[in-house]
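Researcher: Going back to the complex we discussed earlier. I've cleaned up the inputs and rechecked each line, so this should be the final set. Can you rerun the prediction on the complete assembly and write out the structure?
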Amino acid sequence: MILLVVGLALVLLAGASAVVWRRQPRLAAGAYVILVLTGAALAMVPTVRVLTGTGVPPLTIPTHVPGGAWTLALDPLGAWFLLLVLGVGVVAAAYGTWYLASERESGSVPQALLGFALLLIALALVVTARAALLFLAAWELMALTCYFLVVFDDRRAEVRRAGMVYLLATHAGTLLLFVVFGLWGRDAPDLTFGSLQAVGETLGPARSVLFALALLAFGLKAGFVPLHFWLPEAHATAPSHVSAIMSGVVIKFGIYGILRVMTLLGTPPAWWAWLVLALGAASGVIGVLWALAQHDLKRLLAYHSVENVGIILLGVGAGALGLVYHVPALAVLGFLGAVLHTLNHGLFKSLLFLGAGSVLRATGIRGMEQLGGLARRMPLTWVAFLVGSAAIVGLPPLNGFVSEWVVFQAFFAAGVSNSPAGLGVFGAAALGLIGGLALACFAKVCGTVFLGVPRTPAARAAVECPIGAWGPMAVLVLACGLIGVMPVFVIRPAVQVAGLVAGMAPTAAAELAEPVRHGATLISAMAGLIVGLVGVVVVLRMWALQRAGSAAAETWSCGYPATTARMQYTASSFAAPLISLFGWLAGVTVRRSAHAFATHPTNLVLERMLVPVWRGIVRAGDVIRPVPRGRLQLYLLFVVATVSLLLVYLAASGGGR
Amino acid sequence: MTATAWLALGVAFAVAPALPGLAARTRSWLTGRRGAPVLQLYSDLAKLWRKSAVYSATTTWAFRLGGVVLFVTTVLAALLLPFDGRGALIRFAGDFVAFAGLLALGRFALILAAMDTGSSFEGMGASRDATLGSLVEPALFLCFAALAIASGELSLASMLGTTPARLWGPAGPALAMVAVSLFLLALAEAGRVPVDDPTTHLELTMIHEVMVLDHSGPDLALIQYAGALRLALFGTLLAGVTVPLATLPPALAVAAWLVALGGVAVGVGVIEAVMARLRLARVPQFLVAAATLPAFAVILLLSAAA
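Model: Rerun complete. Updated structure for the full complex:
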């Protein structure tokens, strides 16, 4: 645990060095990367120890704040998320120093680097905190640093708006968390997680209220439908390395919160499981449909985070079904799929966002309809982006396939369980649909951004980014590939995490997950076969072509000689069949004329629901607004009156603790 | 893993190109024409493999890799199927996900190859293929779900080995629905009428054929072989559901599987003779129907178990 604290201190030092050496940006960037890397490596030691089955002793900070002692501890669940934070954090930090180097005119770079370091520390504290107040403090630090990172380029109105929407959403979530812990703590001696867990099972119907509130609060962070409204805006407008860590890591903390609360509250009643499953299915399908409708590269990726949080929730829901109906294998498989997908999505989504960042840097364009042909101009970025795309679609031999495979198995385990959980097998249909739609969506992205011919001069002029950009991406490509080819190494620790969430002994969980371990070895064999056979056939094909020869020509266009870049299929057209098929869900307006076809997506929840409601509230506020305007005395009077009323209430109700 | 299974795998690779020929011959015979020889595709493949290729100057390695990946994934998907109803080369719990994943990888590669040409026609085909593929996937998983529940097994080989024996039992209606759905999916995946017409000559109405307009020589050979093998794979799934292969002696099982495969090809030919291709806007309905059938099957099986 000391190593973790020292590691975090080094990360803090990294942030400080960026500010101290703000006049020597190159020196600051170098020191920053080295310090973050060293800090993360130190913090990785206890993380790996916990995940390999050796515990680390907790660390208690002597404080006199109410709500019990502040303890930092690391269990497999926390360590799993910490692994994600450290891994993606280092890569995104390294990429960030390159990315921000040319953004000096947009905002304060040292401040952004410091904010990023603080974000990493906050994330590490969230997963290690074992007391509600410490947890809330870390949570708030995480939310605020994210806000400042999102509004880096605050000269642009859209950035300020996205930041404000994000801030409102995250604070609504934090407020709800205060309510959750406040209600929960009424029956507990203090607010440490141990005490909360001790009373968790005994709460009766209040347990369900707590769960519903926690789901809402953490859902606002995780961004599942319909609580995702802030996500696409914030993730699309933030600097790309910040988008990477927000999409890859920070939203997973909503999942962390949900899993943690589930372990603290004990065996769930049936409706929690079905609710989570339904939210997962809705979020997955609707998320990917909305992604299909986007033509802004980063916003499209952000909607895919909504989809993937849906997939994770499908796993969580399946696991909860296993707990509800006492099907231990289902519980382990469901949670295993969820935690694996959490890690995998963190890796490939940050890879994709970094790739999008490189495209943005090379062309200055986020709109897919203005890109094209980048595969020739940015070959390394293209390979990295392609690997990320294949992984997010869930194709073998990459990591996304492994976790979707486990979630599918959970649904099938539900189907054959001979229990009411059987209906959960329809989750497999939802997951299949999500996979198919994601394939269509990434075919569209790769096809319009990287393949074909450039649609604008800016895209034609693009050149490959330097090693500072593709180096970090190569690390993520390697991670995605390794997990896909040798999944056993991550499945073993992930089973521990799943067992912990399912409330099982590690050995029992490992036994139940044995078929997955066995299957994983065969998936490795299959991955080897894919790579090997592709190699063999490529050689055979080259041999055949060498004998027969090949010629270069124009693309066939039915004999029409004067083809132009504008004749290519556009992103709008590519997605059109699916958009019209799911029209009413997709929230898309279609503009069609004799010579143009374009589709324009809307953020349904934000634009059609929240903004009108907000306007209504503001209008209602107009009624009382004239009274207190600007009078300090009146404000003080209000505060005093409120406090006295609360005191009277406390006295009347017999006093609080 | 028995010797017959190895043999059957080899036979599957060998006979696959005969299936489209058989379907075409059936169609010709029913419509009163003579038609091409059943073994036409073999000579086509041999010829294409020896021919030189023409590449558009727009294309990159993504185009050249498309056909290879499609071919390899289809071949590997075959390793997961039990041709004689007993064992498959690769078999593990949840291997049906790998089956679907391999087919999806092949589709992804071919779509990217099509998009690499920068042609509006091939983009159109790619878009249509992606649309239909996303609807095939849930239907396929619902079929697997019904089979898993009916058999209580979680690998393709065990599912297909044990279900047909129960076809005539209480699970009969459910499995019949799965069989019909698998046939519809076979038509969609192999790009046959009523989803797609392999013999059409108008680019605007094509799906699969328009995606490979720019492919030639060995690349086209790989793609055409993969298409034939894909029909054989779905035919094998269908045979596995309907024919109790596992109860027959191994040699007879292989023979029965071959007959069933031929039956599927003839069925495809009959469909092509008696009906026209659906309008593109209607194809999704066709696929939704293919998904609804196994969904009902799952409900039937679950309610029977409860």
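Model: Worth noting: The mean pLDDT of chain A is 92.
Researcher: Good, that matches what I expected from the previous run.
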